[in-house]
Task: inverse folding
């Protein structure tokens, strides 16, 4: 068990995930398969909760957004048009001193030293990251697993606009599996070969520069920025700034600023914002499709690394698909009475990287309790409530099971009657269950239970008829300790 969060390593997190059933190596019985991982029972719950919250925050709660679910394999010409076949590659390098094999971005060749020993890199070659596959039996059936979900939104842009009757500006969102034949997968879930991206393409009239959705909460949003000028001088000093100041400095346009702010607001909701910095891309490192990009980097145990991005893709993709397909992807603009090709802002998140960040952020070794407490926000916890009968007595078990059945209609619930109550509490603390309900003799008499709070271990007494309401409030972020009467000694933790 790691005593000190400062010394928490990515291997500690990986071992914890395996021990508790969050994540396993893919194909473990064959010795694993590099770059591929399986989410176990608790991991799948947490992963789905992240995806559902992404959808809620960016699709359901926004007026101008719709979602799609496009196929993973699309016509191979997709990737010719998008530029991925020509440009989506990394350079494999090996350290001349310690033989550490890794990859660098094309723009980094000759500039980076080995992160393990500071030695010089020798270039091994350039490798395209697209995964090839074959559709049907013929050689002509060569195709690719998608490297990003974005192309599904571009190709369906016109159909989505027509069927959902959206007017510019509007966005199309998607969450889905992507595949990249990474040269050097590493750092557990951080750099893998199969992962989910949650991203959207936001389509704007090409001449529209004002964003009417910008509010004070966006403009005044504080952030730590590593700007392009600083990096060009080989420095890494962060600046405290706001979205409003970045707009004044013309680092981005208003829509770009609005979506960057919304991304940071989601990170605030996820409880990760304190460990996020924004990094502006230097001109030399921009992707082939982008004219301005900002990464959001999270402080993982192995360094501050990209968790999300935000690119100004302009008219690049729609124009490329129009050229390659011969089809029009223009929209008729009522105001100017002209057909226009919209420009695009693309906010993107790696779902596995968010999952990893939540684990690193939530992991806490409480020395007094001699236990790990996984401090997930309640709404993301894999299990919302554990129901624990204090003694194995028929009437108590039957009441406990009734409480479980009621709660199961809305939440993922655990029922546990084995071992001491203290042991059952700590098992639940370790996997981040925010509330444990203890059912005892008093419950039979006065129709009340105690609910124990994971982080403080304090207990409140509430009526059985109020359980559903209290659980709903805590999942929404209210403090359990304010929702019932504090009781000190009803259930002893032993
Ligand atoms: N459509 C834009 C796009 O795909 P990207 O920065 O290449 O942009 C999006 O990828 C996000 O996917 C990144 O911000 C990162 O969080 C995640 N990601 C990228 N490569 C990854 C990998 N090999 N393993 C896990 N996540 C990855």
Result:
């Amino acid at each position: 068990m790691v005593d000190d969060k400062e010394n928490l390593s990515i291997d500690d997190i990986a071992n914890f995930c395996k021990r508790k059933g969050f994540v396993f190596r893919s194909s473990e019985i064959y010795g694993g398969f590099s770059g591929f991982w399986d989410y176990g029972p608790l991991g799948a719950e947490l992963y789905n909760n992240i995806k559902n919250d992404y959808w809620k925050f960016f699709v359901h709660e926004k007026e101008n957004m719709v979602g799609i679910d496009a196929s993973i394999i699309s016509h191979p010409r997709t990737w010719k048009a998008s530029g991925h076949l020509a440009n989506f590659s990394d350079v494999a390098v090996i350290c001349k001193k310690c033989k550490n094999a890794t990859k660098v971005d094309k723009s980094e060749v000759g500039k980076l030293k080995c992160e393990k020993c500071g030695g010089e890199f020798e270039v091994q070659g350039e490798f395209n990251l697209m995964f090839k596959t074959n559709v049907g039996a013929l050689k002509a059936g060569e195709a690719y697993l998608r490297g990003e979900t974005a192309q599904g939104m571009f190709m369906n842009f016109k159909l989505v606009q027509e069927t959902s009757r959206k007017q510019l500006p509007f966005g199309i969102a998607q969450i889905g599996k992507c595949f990249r034949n990474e040269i050097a997968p590493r750092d557990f879930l951080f750099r893998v070969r199969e992962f989910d991206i949650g991203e959207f393409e936001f389509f704007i009239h090409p001449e529209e520069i004002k964003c009417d959705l910008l509010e004070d909460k966006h403009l005044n949003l504080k952030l730590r920025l590593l700007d392009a000028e600083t990096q060009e001088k080989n420095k890494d000093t962060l600046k405290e700034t706001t979205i409003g100041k970045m707009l004044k400095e013309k680092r981005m346009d208003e829509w770009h600023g609005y979506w960057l702010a919304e991304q940071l607001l989601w990170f605030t909701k996820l409880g990760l914002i304190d460990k996020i910095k924004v990094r502006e891309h230097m001109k030399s490192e921009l992707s082939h499709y982008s004219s301005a990009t900002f990464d959001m980097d999270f402080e993982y145990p192995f360094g501050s690394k990209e968790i999300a991005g935000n690119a100004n893709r302009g008219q690049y993709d729609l124009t490329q698909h129009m050229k390659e397909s011969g089809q029009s992807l223009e929209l008729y603009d009522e105001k100017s009475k002209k057909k226009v090709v919209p420009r695009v802002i693309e906010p993107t998140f790696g779902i596995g990287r968010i999952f990893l960040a939540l684990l690193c952020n939530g992991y806490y070794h409480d020395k007094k309790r001699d236990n790990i407490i996984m401090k997930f926000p309640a709404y993301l916890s894999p299990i919302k409530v554990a129901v624990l009968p204090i003694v194995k007595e028929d009437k108590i078990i039957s009441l406990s099971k009734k409480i479980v059945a009621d709660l199961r209609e809305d939440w993922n619930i655990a029922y546990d009657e084995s071992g001491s109550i203290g042991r059952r509490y700590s098992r639940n603390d370790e996997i981040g269950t925010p509330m444990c309900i203890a059912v005892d003799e008093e419950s039979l008499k006065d129709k009340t239970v105690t609910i124990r709070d994971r982080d403080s271990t304090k207990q409140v007494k509430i009526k059985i008829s109020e359980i559903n309401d209290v659980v709903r409030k805590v999942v929404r972020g209210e403090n359990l300790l304010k929702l019932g009467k504090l009781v000190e000694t009803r259930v002893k933790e032993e």
